[in-house]
Amino acid sequence: FIFCNFVSIADLSLILFLQPLCGSDPILVLDFSMRVLERHPSETIELFLSGGVPPDLVNSYLKQHSPQMQATYLEHMLSMNEHGITANLQNELRLPLDALYEERALLLGRIQQHHLALSLYVHKVHKNVILLIYFLVDHNVL
Hints:
Blueprint: H1 9-18, H2 26-39, H3 41-51, H4 55-65, H5 67-80, H6 87-92, H7 101-110, H8 114-125, H9 129-138
């Protein structure tokens, strides 16, 4: 774990205590991590990811017990997980099909759907060639 300087000793202790329990009792981990999740979402989500708590379980738990943190979790999953996210989690993002084209293209790029993202940039967003070149180079599609 890489912890920020502002994580309290109590929160750090709780995260380190919960880490070995992720595989054997993920519900217990989710219950006790809620306090830390609200103050330190990145560190807690890193706990979920490194500890092996199933992402669909984390998502449904947050949806039921802390809906305001569900979007944060999904955003962190996208930014922290270089292999993308599961189809179930992608569906939770719920972007409208007829709007937010640039946001959709950015998210598609993060989940390695480069051709779909590029298609949105060209046909819907109408960004200039410089942005398209940046997108291709930034996402190693070339």
